[in-house]
Amino acid sequence: MSAPPEVIDAPDANRYEARFGDTLAGFAQYIRTAELIAFVHTEVDPAFEGQGVGGALVRTSLDAARAAGTQVLAVCPFYTAWIARHPEYQDLLYSKRSRVSD
To answer: Mean pLDDT of all residues in the chain?
Structure first.
């Protein structure tokens, strides 16, 4: 198997990008708030399918969310399926927190 892609956060584009050198292999689009990051769409260039690009995007972005203390809303079906197969990341999923009564 070849080397994994480099995955970086591109906040100006609201997405994580996976690259092999200067070539964009895929991206994960997100909407971010102070406490939550919603992953809404993931796309991998067909030329790079089957090379671990999608998994690298998800793992890197979720590790960054964990490090930042940010909850994750997996709107994208790829994220939902990936997290279901990797239970060690399920604790990051957004859950409505209980509110204090007045």
So the answer is: 92
